[in-house]
TrEMBL record:
Residues forming the catalytic site: S189, D315, H344
UniProt record similarity statement: Belongs to the AB hydrolase superfamily. AB hydrolase 4 family.
Keyword field contains Nucleus: no
GO biological process, alphabetically ordered: medium-chain fatty acid biosynthetic process; medium-chain fatty acid catabolic process
Location of the AB hydrolase-1 domain: 108-223
Alphabetized UniProt keyword annotations: Hydrolase, Serine esterase
Protein name: AB hydrolase-1 domain-containing protein
Pfam families cross-referenced by the UniProt entry: Abhydrolase_1 (PF00561)
Annotated Gene3D superfamilies: alpha/beta hydrolase (3.40.50.1820)
One annotated GO molecular function: monoacylglycerol lipase activity
Length: 375
């Protein structure tokens, strides 16, 4: 009896999952202002707007996609060249270049910003899009925040979602070095928040020609509430908080007179870390003040270059009710794409966790538009 039950389950479960994955497949919703240049160019270049997003048959759910991509997707070894960027305050950050054979000063550049604790070599969600861009003949550069990517902190300045000045410095440096090359910024999760806030801060003076924001929280307060619910707290939030603490833990002597370092080390939520470390370090009035300044949803009108955003309904980190679709549809420069499934930065379509997914497709199509058909 038990053997029969197990065999039945082994046969029926994959069939059910396969049928369910087809049942939930749907064309992504997209939001863009009618009659604009952006709408015309997007309809011409973004084939994914008219194609059903079909999640992986054995892994159709957002939480499992996020976990599978994180655990089982490999981090390919790529021949990056490290550059150390020295900031005016004495701090430094590492940026990693991947230049395809035959590239010159006019070759398009994709500038990648990893998520909250990610860096070049440990972020598969960055490395696979980097491969996609490299294979198209584009230069790639991954911007690591201070204290990550193997570059030690030299000052008490770290990074946060509301203060994109380090990225502004690097973007300007790249633009001055390669003034003829078109440049696309591509940010994931918190990296996308930094990119969006940079674009909002600089407006028409941005040193980029386009932006691409993947799975970024539109409202950090609501996102914090979401990931503190039982399942995401158990699976994601406490591990991210631990990683944040581990980043600053070696620098107790650097920070001990500026924060309650023991309280920082006890943090088990991202909100707790932001409250006990980021808020006092950057002089915010409160963590609520920090979250208000970091919020993306209130700044759509400040984006003045073409920018695409990609979010999923089943992403705990970015509740879709915060996405300002009405504001997006009044913008000449922003197009928002929302899928029903895809999780956080995952967007799997194949049974193979390493296979190309929706993010790589969007990068290819949006990059072609920005580099060859928009300006």
């Amino acid at each position: 009896m038990l053997i029969t039950f197990v065999l039945t389950l082994v046969i029926v479960a994959p069939i059910f999952l396969w049928m369910y994955s087809w049942y939930i497949s749907a064309v992504p919703k997209h939001y863009v202002k009618n009659g604009t240049k952006l709408q015309r160019k997007a309809q011409k270049n973004l084939r994914i707007l008219d194609q059903k997003y079909h999640p992986s048959w054995w892994c159709p759910f957002g939480t499992t996609q996020t976990i599978v991509r994180q655990i089982f997707r490999d981090c390919p070894t790529l021949p990056f060249e490290r550059e150390i960027v020295e900031f005016d305050d004495g701090g430094a950050a590492g940026i990693d270049w991947l230049v395809p054979e035959g590239a010159d000063d006019d070759t398009p550049i994709v500038v990648f910003l990893p998520g909250i604790t990610g860096s070049t070599h440990d972020s598969s969600y960055v490395l696979h899009p980097v491969k996609e861009a490299r294979d198209k003949g584009w230069k790639c550069v991954v911007v690591n925040p201070r204290g990550l990517g193997g570059v030690k902190l030299r000052t008490t300045r770290t990074y946060n979602a509301a203060t994109p000045h380090d990225f502004a410095y690097i973007a300007k440096m790249i633009n001055e070095r390669y003034p003829k090359a078109k440049k696309l910024g591509c940010g994931f999760s918190m990296g996308g928040m930094i990119l969006w806030n940079y674009l909002a801060m600089t407006g028409e003076d941005a040193d980029l020609d386009g932006g691409m924001i993947i799975s970024s929280p539109w409202d950090p307060m609501v996102a914090s509430d979401s990931i503190e619910c039982f399942i995401p707290q158990l699976i994601f939030n406490r591990f991210i908080a631990k990683n944040l603490v581990d980043i600053v833990r070696p620098y107790r002597d650097l920070f001990k007179d500026m924060v309650d370092f023991d309280a920082v080390c006890r943090c088990n939520t991202v909100r707790g870390f932001d409250k006990s470390f980021v808020t006092p370090m950057y002089g915010f009035e409160s963590y609520e003040d920090y979250y208000r300044l970091a919020t993306l949803a209130t700044k759509v009108d400040k984006i003045k270059i073409p920018c695409v955003t990609l979010n999923s309904v089943d992403d705990y980190f970015s509740p879709v009710e915060c996405i300002p679709t009405d504001d997006i549809m009044q913008s000449d420069h922003v197009i928002g794409i929302i899928t029903n499934h895809g999780g956080h930065t995952a967007f799997m379509e194949s049974a193979d966790p390493n296979a190309r997914g929706m993010v790589e497709k969007l990068l290819s199509q949006w990059g072609n538009m920005i580099f060859h058909d928009y300006h």
